[in-house]
Design goal:
By secondary structure, the protein is mostly helical. 71% of the residues lie in helices and 0% in strands. The longest helix is centred in the N-terminal third of the chain and has 19 residues.
Length: 83
């Protein structure tokens, strides 16, 4: 499988999860969070994930990811059903 296919599959997967979290403005943080989980690195907390997913704006990315994770206003059951 080439990189384009992998990226397309990942985008499709995140879009499916996005339909379970409700609001369109949560899609980008969801994508960034999932990307952070997939990237190399031992620590999978939002601080190092922010540094890896948005190195030019780490502080803002950290805040975005922290807000996304801490204020999870979606149904866990719906998200797990999509997974």
């Amino acid at each position: 499988m080439d990189l384009d296919q992998s990226e397309a599959r990942f985008a499709e997967y995140v879009a499916g999860l996005g339909s379970a979290i409700g609001h369109a403005e949560r899609t980008r943080p969801l994508r960034d969070y999932c990307t952070g989980l997939m990237l190399p690195g031992e620590r999978k907390s939002v601080e190092p994930m922010a540094a890896r997913t948005a190195p030019a704006r780490t502080a803002a990315q950290h805040q975005s990811l922290l807000h996304f994770v801490a204020n999870a206003a979606w149904s866990d059951e719906d998200v797990l059903a999509k997974v």
